[in-house]
Amino acid sequence: MKNRRKRGGLNGGDVVVSWRRFFQFVALFVFSFLIFSALFVFLGNQKINQKTVLRGSEPAAVKVATIHEAVVFPDQTLIFLNYPPSSRLLTKEDLFCVFSDVKDSSKSYKELPFAVEIDDNGRQIVRCSAVPRGSTVSLAVSRWSVGDNNLLVETTHRWDWLVYDAVIDDDNSTVVFVKGLNLRPGKVADVSRYECVYGWDLAKPKLLLRTQVISAAQEIVRCKTPLTVLEGPRTAQPVKVSVRIKGSGMLPSVAHPIKRPGRVKDSKPFETCVCTMTRNAANVLREWVMYHGGIGVQRWFIYDNNSDDDIVAEIKHLENRGYNVSRHFWPWIKTQEAGFANCAIRAKSDCDLVAFIDVDEFFYIPSGQTLTDVIRHHKTAGPLSSSGEIGEIRTPCHSFGPSGLRDPPRDGVTTAYTCRMSLPERHKSIIRPESLNATLINVVHHFHLREGFAFADVDKGTMVINHYKYQVWDVFKEKFKRRVATYVADWQNEENVGSKDRAPGLGTRPVEPSDWAERFCEVNDTGLRDWVLENYRERKTQRLVWEREGRRVEDEVIVQMGSWADKRIGRKRKKQLKAQ
Predict the structure, then answer these.
(1) Is residue 502 situated within a structural domain?
(2) Where does it primarily localize (predicted)?
(3) Pairing mode of beta strands 419-420, 523-524
(4) Could you give the CA distance from residue 319 to residue 299 in angstroms, rounded to a whole number?
(5) Residues 175 and 222 in one domain
């Protein structure tokens, strides 16, 4: 019995001790598990944060980007991206344009986009190459997983049948820009043939708002804007506008009418502004802006027609130097007249007067007056027409030739090209935006005016435009790629070969004539060159104010090397003389 009790006691004691140890073990295990879990979560978050920083975004937000629609041009494709609110935008470095065979999607290739742009509506637009025949286009996002990395195009539009832009004017009408109506240049069309259509989804006829057309001419239709559009709140999905041709149907549209901020009358901040449309003008823009800034221009609107040079950086440089220059992405090809009309509306609230010239055109005022002084004189003291007050001033143009040069000038065009044709060619205009006809008809060189306004011609002895039209061949041959005006045939086409818009005797092929450097030279004209050298050279360096720093450093090195060589030759010559 005692032994049994002892054993029992011993066994009972063992049971007590083992349970205690068991609970200690469990407690230790739970504590260790909690510590390990906390460390795991902490280290896991650190890795996720590092990946997020390295990728530079919130992957979930980026992943929901979609392609809303695309527009196919002969030489490129515009792809419109759609994002939910607060998403981070993709960059050019994130994207690839992917072209796939329609019959076999495994046959595909990818390339970097030309550019990624933002338009006036805040939409992000990716510029890809033209889609090859028998292929489709999509976008690949480089940092996504293989299974998810393609964005497919929902809707593709043809460029030659499209409503491509729209803006609400200060009278609350909507100015709609249309490709495909094929209206005659300079003529007003019958508005009863058309109808304006507004909607958040143009594919749902029952939800569309229809309004009357106020005017239609060239590529511009002016519509009455519904109150719902004018007074409604801005939403993530803005309203679209299109035009319906009665009996033919509605044109597809990528246009969202945008209301530009207005100003109180008589409080415009700029007296003289300039609008231009250009492509790849980065190397000439600095001279053009700085020169015209010196004669009184205060504001520049640059409509960029698909540049692939450093024009963005060049405009930023000019802004940093105090010039009020803005770039406006305008991808629509052969639409210069429409672009100028768009710019006239844009400039109306800011500018009293707007000049429409190209980046190879420079106002020259022999008297040394400012551009503003000349304009004021013609508005007040000039001969008034019986038609009314002056709303447009027309300036004659002199066309300059290569002037014996064979290489592009380093210091700019104004001091390099000095030989021109004897007779002026056409004119360019400076307008008061309020004086323009509601149709906004223009032929690039001038606009149609409202009733009660007239134009005045400037005498060429008072002011002229030096048009550096026929430059050295390497520059001039770029004109053969495509002309920007709607109703002007491209130079490689056989249409209107004898037109003033072409180079006399050149033909339709970009083949350099052997005597190109000596052509278009009838009058030696150094007036603007002399004025520029007198007024735009820095006193210390004697260099023109728009010369690039890189060129200055290069020239200084050449000068230093030249002076070192002169000294060396001089020392050698002294030794020879002593020896004699």
Answers:
(1) no
(2) membrane
(3) antiparallel
(4) 11
(5) yes
Distance CA 321, CA 298 (A): 13
φ and ψ of 212, to 5 deg: -80, 155
The gap from C-alpha 519 to its chain's centroid, in whole angstroms, comes to 34
Of 466, 490, 512, the residue at which a domain comes to its end is 466
CB 302 within 8 A of CB 325: yes
The per-residue pLDDT for range 472-514, each reduced to its tens digit, is: 999 998 877 766 676 665 555 555 555 555 567 676 677 899 9
Q: Are strands 419-420 and 325-329 parallel, antiparallel or unpaired?
A: unpaired
Q: How far is CA 314 from CA 311, 321, 343, in A?
A: 5, 11, 21
Pairing of β 427-431 and β 135-141: unpaired
Per residue in 461-494, is it b (16+ CB within 10 Å) or e — as a string?
eebbbbbbbbbbbebbeebbebbbbbbbbebeee
User: Domain check: are 311 and 438 in the same one?
Assistant: yes
Over the stretch 327-344, which tens digit does the pLDDT of each residue have?
A: 999 999 999 999 999 999
User: 3-state secondary structure string, 292-335?
Assistant: HHHCCCCEEEEEECCCCCCHHHHHHHHHHCCCCEEEEECCCCCC
pTM equals 0.82
Whether residue 317 sits in one domain with residue 372 = yes
Give how far Cα 513 sits from Cα of 466, 473, 509, Å: 24, 9, 11
- Residues 351, 339, single domain; the answer is yes
Contact 282, 192 (CB under 8 A): no
Single-letter amino acid code for the residue at 148? D
Last residue of one domain, picked from the residues 208, 236, 259: 259
- For residues 429 and 444, give the distance between their C-alpha atoms in angstroms, rounded to a whole number: 9
In a domain, 485, yes or no: no
Does residue 249 fall inside a structural domain?
Answer: yes
d(CA 361, CA 359): 5
126 with 105, same domain: the answer is yes
Confidence check: pLDDT of 236 > 90: no
Q: Is the pLDDT of residue 395 over 50?
A: yes
Co-location of 250 and 185 in the same domain: yes
Q: Where are the alpha helices (DSSP H) in 96-238?
A: 227-231
Give every CB contact of residue 376 below 8 A, 6+ residues apart in sequence. Answer: none
Please report, for the domain that includes residue 89, its CATH number: 2.60.40
Inside any domain, residue 302: yes
Residue 568 structural domain: 546-573
**Number of domains forming the structure of the chain:** 4
Please indicate, yes or no, whether residues 197 and 282 belong to a single structural domain of this protein: no
